[in-house]
Specification:
- This is Putative pre-16S rRNA nuclease.
- This protein has four helices and five strands, in the order E-E-E-H-E-H-E-H-H.
- It has 138 residues and is α/β, with parallel strands linked by helices.
- The chain has one domain: 2-Layer Sandwich (Nucleotidyltransferase, domain 5).
- Helix 3 crosses helix 4.
Length: 138
């Protein structure tokens, strides 16, 4: 059974999946969503859950630097509740402060072009969220 990691934004959801042992996270894809139009990508998430035999979902939880929860954090809480309701799997909210900035730094250091960074940043952030969770479990 694998764990899925999600970096939820207003326009995309980065998806990562663990290996079968729960040791490493690999980037899978970026799902286009439209929060304003209530299109959240849950159909695709369901396909991934079945395809990879996911037993747990980790959703990035962007808190403010002072620990309070702002609008993006509330959106992640909503997304997590909907995942639990729709798929009946345990959902863990994982503090993701600075994750996207760290992913951006890794891609910059690897000299990835701006266009390519834009395409992979959410998937990379999902990997960092999931790997942080997996490291805490092992």
């Amino acid at each position: 059974m694998r764990t899925m990691g999600l970096d939820v934004g207003s326009k995309t959801v980065g998806v990562a999946i663990s290996d079968a042992f729960g040791w490493t996270a690999q980037g899978l894809e970026t799902i286009k969503i439209n929060e304003e139009e209530k299109q959240f990508g849950f159909d695709r998430i369901g396909e991934i859950i079945k395809e990879h035999e996911v037993s747990k979902i980790v959703v990035g939880f962007p808190k403010n630097m002072n620990g309070t929860v702002g609008p993006r954090g509330e959106a992640s809480q909503f997304y997590g509740r909907e995942l639990e309701r729709l798929f009946g799997l345990p959902v863990v909210l994982w503090d993701e402060r600075l994750t996207t900035m760290a992913a951006e730094r890794v891609l910059l250091e690897a000299d990835v072009s701006r266009k390519k960074r834009k395409q992979v940043i959410d998937k990379m952030a999902a990997v960092m969220i999931l790997q942080g969770f997996l490291n805490s479990q092992n």
